[in-house]
Specification:
This protein is of the alpha+beta class. The chain folds into 4 domains: about 1-170, no CATH class; about 180-300, no CATH class; about 465-545, Alpha-Beta Plaits (2-Layer Sandwich); about 550-755, PPM-type phosphatase domain (Phosphatase 2c, domain 1). It has 27 helices and 17 strands.
């Protein structure tokens, strides 16, 4: 039932709209607006089955002769037929096709105008002006349908909206009943409402547009001055009391009509529209005006929203701190669960007791061996156990002669010692792996605890929003034809400003967006994230203070000659906090097995870094994890993270070759060292911090390249001969020289990354 009422209201509104626009003209000769409005409404997804009958009724009321009826039928034919053809073939109509159909819809009117001996200039202008009006209505309707009425319009959209209002004013100027002007009623009421609820210039803009519309219709500016005077009266007496602006507008109309004599004829009927408009204005409840004020308001304080954001940040801060403590306590629990390995003496005593209780029990010589010669027997058994632990087994040759001569279970004794030591080794290995796993979990819990502490610190401070800059930003973007429906500007910390703007998707890639935000924020800002919004066609563009440095890189690689797969893997990733990570992982050997190992290693490291863990925990955890595999295939790690804010580079090496920093001052060697990752459970990485300068180059290579040079100094001298400032060209030259050093043959997998800081 509700839908039916809505459709009925729409139907009546459409009839009135087409009735008014069919009376709107240019110079009283050209009537191009009604058909353009029909096609525009159809384009913005209004129901065609409502539009067509409303168009027929609205236009036929004004023009019901034979020629006009044929013109109406031809117009709706070129709307309905293409519309349903596109529906049937399931092909969306393109905008240029809409204009073609709209133009051909006027072919009957063009023919009748020519036959009616209409001025040929007017014949040509009518469809042209109609198509131009169609374009204007689309420009204003599309954003309003997509974004709604609560968004600020661009300059071009405001202009097109003004042209649409002009056409409406031109039609209303011809809608008089016995000198009663519906135009004055409509304009007077809206001027009062807009002045009362919105900014002052809104009502002046509306009054001027409607006045110009009447001038367009009959080449007479009779309403331009009165409408502007009404707007001025409403603005001057704009107070909380609704009666004052209403009385002021009535008084202004009396002065215009009776004192200044701006109208040709002025009587009580001419005076009546503004009186009725004022009465309606006063009668509308304040609740309705509050809604209109929200609609016309271009800004909102949003203090409540900002308060909620800061309150939630404080809540998140406390919860993250609590979670951090939980994970720290769990870390301590796991560390206490780790069993320490038994000493050699303790292992000997334990296995001696086990052998004594199994082999010697019930033996006739038990008392003689374990009482009379107790210490000697124990020493011999423990020596045999030690030999079995070291060599893997004992034989009859390891048994002392005086024990072999009197022990009638020598073979059983030797077999039991070998069995027990083998079982203990297996058990010890299992316990060691379990302990390593516990230590790995403990490291992860510690890392998560630290990570949550960092996150808690990040959200500890309140966000300082800048409402003045937000409004300036929206105004500046709008004036540059970038639709900005909302903007937030705040300081993340003392060095970082953040901005979020909601714009059209097509505007998000415009270069001037960054430039405008940088101008308003008084510092260089850069886009770091573009996210979709709930409204189609709009996206969130997040910007923040651009870091002091940036980097570009070059990469060159080649697998070992004769191998299709390289055992080298690399990673180049941008991390949170304006950091870049460059890494080469070289799986020992070449081929598929080395490739799989290096890829596993680099993926683990990459994901740990993305999660926000620090160097020590990352390498310790990955090392322990790979150590559990026990497959004797290891990987070297050559890793560098660059902080683009400070220009500090962190080098981390585990078994990797030397790296180099080339600058205008020369070339610095970052020496290699440490064991490859996964060799030992507690292997430590070599780390080094270096402060970078503008135009510095970082060169990291796998050993397949480094080993082709006689020494690090020879590689350094070669780097100083490279003249190119392009990192990709440098990487290519390094690889070419490494191959040339081995007569074009790659004896190992080769990978080189060159990074330029600027």
């Amino acid at each position: 039932m509700k839908d039916k009422i809505n459709y009925l209201i729409k139907f009546v509104v459409f009839i009135l709209l087409f009735f008014i626009l069919s009376r709107a003209s240019v110079a009283g000769q050209i009537y191009p607006f009604a058909f353009a409005m029909l096609f525009a409404l159809a384009w913005v997804n209004q129901k065609v089955w409502l539009l067509v009958p409303a168009y027929i009724i609205g236009v036929i009321i004004n023009f019901h002769n034979f020629e006009n009826i044929i013109g109406i039928l031809v117009t709706i034919f070129f709307l309905i037929v293409p519309y349903y053809i596109h529906v049937v073939v399931k092909k969306p109509m393109q905008k240029w096709e809409l204009f073609v159909y709209a133009f051909f819809s006027q072919c009957a009117n063009i023919v009748f105008n020519i036959l009616g001996e209409m001025n040929i200039v007017y014949v040509v202008l009518e469809p042209i002006i109609g198509l131009a009006f169609l374009l204007c209505t689309l420009i204003i309707f599309e954003p309003l349908i997509i974004r709604g009425f609560s968004t600020k319009l661009t300059a071009s959209e405001l202009s097109c909206g003004g042209i649409t209002l002009m056409a409406l004013a031109a039609g209303l100027a011809n809608c008089n009943i016995y000198q009663f002007s519906f135009l004055k009623l409509f304009v007077g009421l809206l001027i009062l409402v807009i002045a009362y609820c919105g900014k002052s210039y809104y009502s002046l803009y509306f009054a001027s547009i409607m006045g110009i519309g009447t001038l367009l219709n009959n080449n007479n500016a009779i309403y331009v001055a009165p409408f502007i005077i009404w707007a001025l009266c409403a603005i001057v007496f704009k107070f909380q009391n609704k009666f004052l602006p209403a009385i002021a507008v009535i008084a202004g109309e009396a002065l215009i009509g009776y004192y200044f004599n701006l109208y040709y004829v002025f009587n009580i009927i001419e005076f009546l529209p503004i009186i009725i408009a004022s009465v309606i204005f006063v009668s509308i409840p304040k609740k309705a005006y509050k809604q209109i004020t929200i609609l016309l308001s271009s800004t909102s304080d949003r203090m409540a929203i900002k308060s909620v954001i800061n309150r939630n940040r404080d809540l998140i801060h406390r919860r993250l701190n609590n979670l951090s403590e939980v994970f720290f306590d769990m870390n301590n629990v796991f560390k206490k669960m780790i069993k320490s390995e038994m000493s050699e003496e303790e292992v000997g005593d334990m296995l001696y007791e086990e052998i004594k209780n199994t082999i010697c029990k019930g033996c006739s010589e038990q008392k003689h061996c374990h009482r009379t010669f107790c210490e000697d027997t124990k020493l011999i058994f423990k020596q045999l156990i030690k030999v079995a632990m070291e060599r893997g087994k004992v034989t009859l040759l390891d048994l002392p002669s005086y024990l072999a001569s009197r022990c009638n279970k020598s073979n059983v004794l030797i077999s039991e010692i070998n069995t027990l030591t083998s079982q203990y080794k297996s058990y010890s290995k299992l316990v060691g792996n379990v302990d390593t796993s516990k230590l790995l979990i403990s490291d992860q819990l510690s890392g998560i605890s630290g990570l949550m502490k960092d996150l808690a610190s990040e959200v500890d401070s309140l966000i300082s929003f800048d409402s003045t800059r937000e409004q300036s930003l929206k105004n500046e973007l709008t004036s540059n034809n970038i639709v900005c429906t909302d903007a937030v500007v705040y300081e993340k910390d003392a060095k970082t400003s953040m901005a979020c703007v909601v714009v059209r998707e097509e505007d998000s890639s415009k270069l001037k967006l960054e430039n405008i935000v940088s101008k308003i924020c008084n510092q260089k800002m850069s886009v770091y994230e573009i996210l979709p919004t709930e409204k189609a066609g709009l996206v969130n563009v997040n910007l923040k203070t651009a870091p002091s440095y940036d980097c570009i890189f070059g990469l060159a690689s080649q697998p070992k000659s004769g191998s299709n797969v390289s055992g080298d893997c690399h990673s180049i990733e941008r991390l949170d906090g304006d950091k870049f990570m460059f890494a080469i992982c070289d799986g020992m050997g070449s081929g598929n097995k080395a490739s799989e190992k290096s890829e596993t290693t680099i993926n683990l490291i990459e994901n740990f870094y993305k999660a926000g863990f620090d160097n020590e925990i990352i390498l310790s955890s990955v090392n322990k994890l790979l150590n559990l595999e026990k497959d004797d295939v290891f990987s070297t790690i050559d890793l560098c993270t660059v902080d683009l804010k400070s220009g500090i580079a962190d080098f981390v090496k585990m078994g990797a070759s030397s790296s180099y920093i080339r600058s205008d001052d020369g070339c610095k060697i970052i020496e290699s060292g440490a064991l490859p990752i996964g060799v030992l459970q507690d292997a430590k990485a070599i780390t080094k911090k270096v402060v970078l300068k503008n135009k510095d180059f970082i060169i990291i290579c796998s050993d397949g390249i480094n080993d082709t040079f006689g020494s690090d100094s020879e590689f350094k001298d070669f780097l100083l001969t490279i003249k190119s400032a392009n990192p990709q060209e440098q990487a290519d030259q390094i690889l070419s020289r490494a191959l040339a050093n081995n007569n074009g043959y790659a004896v190992d997998d080769m990978t080189c990354i060159v990074v330029k800081i600027f």
